[in-house]
TrEMBL record:
Protein name: Alanine dehydrogenase
Coiled coil (UniProt feature): none
UniProt: NAD(+) binding residues: S134, D198, R203, S220, V239, L240, V267, A268, V269, D270, V298, A299, N300, M301
PROSITE patterns, sorted: ALADH_PNT_2
Family per record: Belongs to the AlaDH/PNT family.
Superkingdom, taxonomy of origin: Bacteria
InterPro entries, per database record: Ala_DH, Ala_DH/PNT_CS2, AlaDH/PNT_N, AlaDH/PNT_NAD(H)-bd, NAD(P)-bd_dom_sf
Record-annotated Alanine dehydrogenase/pyridine nucleotide transhydrogenase NAD(H)-binding domain positions: 149-297
Residue intervals of the Alanine dehydrogenase/pyridine nucleotide transhydrogenase N-terminal domain: 4-137
Native source species: Cyclobacterium xiamenense
């Protein structure tokens, strides 16, 4: 198979979907690898390193898309890339379709096969290709929140961990999954007073067992959220419903109840955000303020630490990418049930129910395509 890796063109996105080590694995198995010129530079990988691994360097994004039977990316294609995607081409990347109708309709028109990292799901409901970036984003959420609590950046002017004789900042984390857990570890390690909210009692029992003493758990509901937000300094949104839009747990009217300079970091922005006033921002312009509350809603947070993020992501994606290249997407999805759940759009049909329901589109069960095979 011909594997193509275009350079990411989303604002300040420095990750790359394949390392030179990964390219070598494809070449060893007899595949051809094409990498766009400078695609790996942002993550610290030179064109020469890819060439030494057996990959061919192509000069433009157009020639890279043209060369590939399978396109490996990190982030979803954006406007200039839509016309480069062709019928029956396999795209393996993060898509987050439920929060992006123009992208969804563009991929339907392309008649490509869209396999989304974020909905690849194992039988135990874990998301192996989302976990690495969730770990990075969760840790960054606490780090960024601590930074933006500083007065010159728009926050309350409070040190996350405090010092002797002063109280630490209060941090509220909405969601006790991978993002929320990692955010809690970081915030707690800096000395903050942390509360994690979730709707799963078993999950909260687990968190109560493993977290340090400055982390508490609480049932997530509107009453409890309103009870806490008036005295909270940093709110981190970490809610995920695989493949679907995140629910709005923080509504516009709640901002009036918050302290001026409260900071909100919405890690769920890729899936529409769990904060109603959340709008995607970029690393170039990461924040905005509404009603005195600072919002940080960067849609590709791990892109700010591309070396760490690229290695963490490709460690997880490479085995699946190799399987897709070796077997083709249909056989690979039959042999790896988790890949089957990653299929979102096939040749113009939406085969992931949550996406179809979000935009009121016809839904075709994925079995229609796999049974044909």
């Amino acid at each position: 198979m011909r594997i193509a890796v275009p350079k990411e063109i989303k604002n300040n996105e420095n990750r790359v979907a394949l390392t030179p080590a990964g390219a070598k694995e494809f070449v060893k198995e007899g595949h051809e690898v094409f990498v766009q010129q400078t695609a790996g530079e942002g993550s610290g990988f030179s064109d020469e390193a890819y060439q030494l691994s057996g990959a061919k360097i192509l000069p433009t994004i157009e020639s890279t898309y043209e060369a590939g039977d399978m396109i490996l990316k990190v982030k979803e294609p954006i406007g200039p890339e839509y016309a480069l995607i062709r019928e029956n081409q396999l795209l393996f990347t993060y898509f987050h379709f439920a929060s992006n109708e123009p992208l969804t309709r563009a991929m339907i028109r392309s008649k490509a096969v869209c396999l989304a990292y974020e909905t690849v799901e194992k039988p135990d409901r874990s998301l192996p290709l989302l976990v690495p970036m969730s770990e990075v984003a969760g840790r960054m959420a606490a780090q960024k929140g601590a930074n933006y609590l500083e007065k010159p950046l728009g926050g309350r002017g409070i040190l996350l961990g405090g010092v002797p004789g002063t109280l630490p900042a209060k941090v509220l984390i909405l969601g006790g999954g991978v993002v929320g857990t990692q955010a809690a570890w970081m915030a707690a390690g800096l000395g903050a007073d942390v509360i994690i909210m979730d709707v799963s009692l078993p999950r909260m029992r687990y968190l109560s067992d493993v977290m340090p003493k400055n982390v508490k758990t609480m049932m997530s509901n509107e009453y409890n959220i309103r009870k806490l937000i008036g005295s909270t300094d940093l709110i981190i949104g970490a809610v995920l419903i695989p493949g679907a839009k995140a629910p709005h747990l923080i509504t516009r009217d709640m901002l009036q109840e918050m302290l001026p300079g409260t900071v909100m970091v919405d890690v769920a922005v890729d899936q529409g955000g769990c904060i109603e006033t959340c709008e995607p921002t970029t690393h170039e312009n990461p924040t905005y303020t509404i009603d005195g509350v600072l919002h940080y809603c960067v849609a590709n947070m791990p892109g700010a630490v591309p070396y760490t993020s690229t290695l963490a992501l490709t460690n997880a994606t490479l085995p699946y990418a190799l399987a897709l290249a070796k077997n083709g997407w249909q056989d690979a999805c039959l042999h790896y049930p988790e890949l089957r759940s990653g299929l979102n759009i096939i040749k113009g049909d939406v085969v992931y129910q949550a996406v179809a329901e979000t935009f009121d589109l016809p839904y075709v069960p994925v079995s229609y395509y796999l049974n044909q095979h």
